[in-house]
Amino acid sequence: MNTSDSNLFNSEFFRQIFETSRDGIAVTNLDGSFLETNPAFQTLTGYSLEDLKKDSFWSLFPLNWDSSQRKVFHENLLSIGYSQEFEKEYIRKDGKNISISIRIYLIRDESKNPTAFWGTIRDISERKHNEEVHKQLYEEIKEGWEALRRIFVLNPFPMFISEIDTGKLLEVNRKFAEQIEHEPDELIGKTMTELGVWFSDQVKEAIFGVIRRDGFVDSIEMPFRTTTGNEFWGLFSAQPIEYMGKTALLSITVPMTDRIKEERENKDY
To answer: Strands, E, within 95-230: which ranges?
Structure first.
């Protein structure tokens, strides 16, 4: 947003937004001294307008910014007319540390001359807290997955992990790659349908119908094809798991080709 009419700030429309906005709004002169702040700004910082007038809008900027960085920011703001949103930690009057996001705009008069700045600040403490919790949870899941991955990779049974929605393969072990006669590194990102591993669409839909109904499948005898077209039978099991912070499908295809052949041969006699 680039404000070019300073009369806007004296309009009833702006005053209504200014007074009722849930975000803090402040108007400063060109050197950053506070001229006016809305109730939300004062509530967020804990300071009255009288207190703020003794300070500068620069107090909201990152502490590690030196004078040269502030100068560059100030010059860019005058040139472009607005700033990109940035975040920082802010200490309220009561000593409480909060996370805020800040965005600043330039105010020009009718002759297009810069006259003041106005800016918004938003309390993003809850969002930052949620991001930190999610990051910590992800790291815990990642650590747990690294331990499980060693078991997954070395498991003697063919196993793969896929996205539930798209069916794209996320992880495969060596035994699964050997089972479908394909290079392991070339499988990631592909689907069983693309690879031609499902024996038929009917078989695939029947399996996923059971998963949608029961939440899992356990040791279902079913036919598959390798990527080279060879048919094989397997005991197919699948169960939703948490994978890297998301829900995915862990599947196992235990080979049973020899037993099926033997049963068919016995039927022929």
So the answer is: 97-108, 114-123, 159-163, 169-172, 217-225
